[in-house]
Amino acid sequence: MQDLISMIRRRLPLIMTIMVFGILTSLYLIISSPRIYESSAVIQVDTPAAISQGSDSSLPASRRVQLIEQRLTARSNILDVIERLKLFADSPGMSETDKIGALRSSIRIESIQAPGVSADSSMSLAAIVISARAETAETAAAIANDFANSVVNRDRENRAARIVETRDYLTSEENRLGESLAEQDRTMADFTARYEDALPAAQEYLQTELAQLNASVNALERDIMGLQRDRLALEETPVGADARPSATLVQQIRTAEIELAQARRTLAAGHPEIKRLEDNLARLNSGDESTSDLGLRQAALIDRQQDQLAAQRTALQSRIQEIERARSRAPQVARDLENMTRQQRRLQDRYNEISRQLASVETQQMLMDNDQAERFVMLERALPPEYPALSNRKKSAVLGAGGSFALAFGIALLLELMRPVLRRTEQFARATGTRPVIALPYLPTAREMRNRRLKYIYVAVLLAVGIFVALWLMGSIPGLQSPAVVPDPSQGIG
Predict the structure, then answer these.
(1) Over the chain, what HEC string results?
(2) I want to staple 134 with a disulfide (CB 3.0 to 4.6 A). Which of 54, 65, 139, 180 is the partner?
(3) Where are the domains of the chain?
(4) Membrane spanning segments where (predicted)?
(5) Per-residue pLDDT tens for 299-316?
């Protein structure tokens, strides 16, 4: 400690010079630096009970504040604010890009979340705080109020414009999808009508019909074979003079009865053919016609019956072939029908989704018309602050003084280490390990005494000049004005 005090005493002019100049320099920088004022405006988010989930309020608070900040800090909006508030009027040489950058950096938008609500909830945003910094208190308050008014006034018209734009798009999309669905329905109706027998839903019915048609064809085959046998039996019956009329008549009556029974089994009741056969049988029983005429008429009747049964068989066989062709086309028809059904389902799902969104947008419009949508309300306007926002002058002064003392002490210590000299007995004992027997005090010369007095006078004058300059810089001397330093326009907003 004694060595340290001795070093400070010897290097006092150097230490005081560095400290005074360091303190005055830091004091000058502190006083000449521009003061920055900050003012804030608070906007309350008024969320009614009937909130629309499809609006911007369904977004998280961080995303909504980001969107608001992007709209406010857009280039066009920043230029409007600069022109409206006449900012940077004292900096005509400043470029437009620098003005925009300075104003953007001075704006801060923060969100206040509602207590007890999740950050991802649609109602998590409770308020928005818009802060602005400037070189004057009035300018900071004017900038904050201007941006807050932009949020409050433009929010409703921006939301209304988005609702109208969204509604127009959804309406046109709904009409387009409706036309596509109608066209798809017509296509499917034509397809099902063209391939009715090949549809998957008709396969079980076709299988049953095919079994019934095969059974009907077999029954017709048996009937035709029976008529052919009757025709052969009629041809073998003699019709000459030596034929027995009674046998022939009995055979004809028997044949007529068989034909009538077959007709009643195959034809509907009241059919003209049944009526004719009944009349023929009645004539045979009454004996009005001859055996020859009856045979001819019976043969003609059998031929006509064979032709009718053959036509029925041909029609049934044609239907069987149609069914077989339809069944062969069934796999491809099923695939095509599935593709059309899938396309129709996609169109229907899209149409339902568009309809749901359109209903949500119309609900938003109704809520806005009834003033029930989310609103931004100016809760607290920005006021000119009384004190600068960045008031760290005391701390800067303390740091400047401490840094100056540390620099002066470091330089003095470095000079001592560069030229070590043993000045005291304790230093000699530490350096050599032996203590001197006798130590004579140093007697300074007259020149050294004069230099010592000049050193103290220099230190006193230095302290007086330093105190005077410090008071002058702080404007504490009457009649002397503190030097005004014009700040860089890019460092603040005037």
Answers:
(1) CHHHHHHHHHCHHHHHHHHHHHHHHHHHHHHHCCCCEEEEEEEEEECCCCCCCCCHHHCCHHHHHHHHHHHHCCHHHHHHHHHHHCCCCCCCCCCHHHHHHHHHHCEEEEEEECCCCCCCCCCCEEEEEEEEEECCHHHHHHHHHHHHHHHHHHHHHHHHHHHHHHHHHHHHHHHHHHHHHHHHHHHHHHHHHHCCCCCHHHHHHHHHHHHHHHHHHHHHHHHHHHHHHHHHHHHHCCCCCCCCHHHHHHHHHHHHHHHHHHHHHHCCCCCHHHHHHHHHHHHHHHCCCCHHHHHHHHHHHHHHHHHHHHHHHHHHHHHHHHHHHHHHHHHHHHHHHHHHHHHHHHHHHHHHHHHHHHHHHHHHHHHHHCCCCCEEEEEECCCCCCCCCCCCHHHHHHHHHHHHHHHHHHHHHHHHHHCCCCCCHHHHHHHHCCCCCCCCCCCCCHHHHHHHHHHHHHHHHHHHHHHHHHHHHCCCCCCCCCCCCCCCHHHCCC
(2) 139
(3) 2-31+391-491, 200-355
(4) 12-31, 397-415, 456-475
(5) 777 778 878 888 888 888
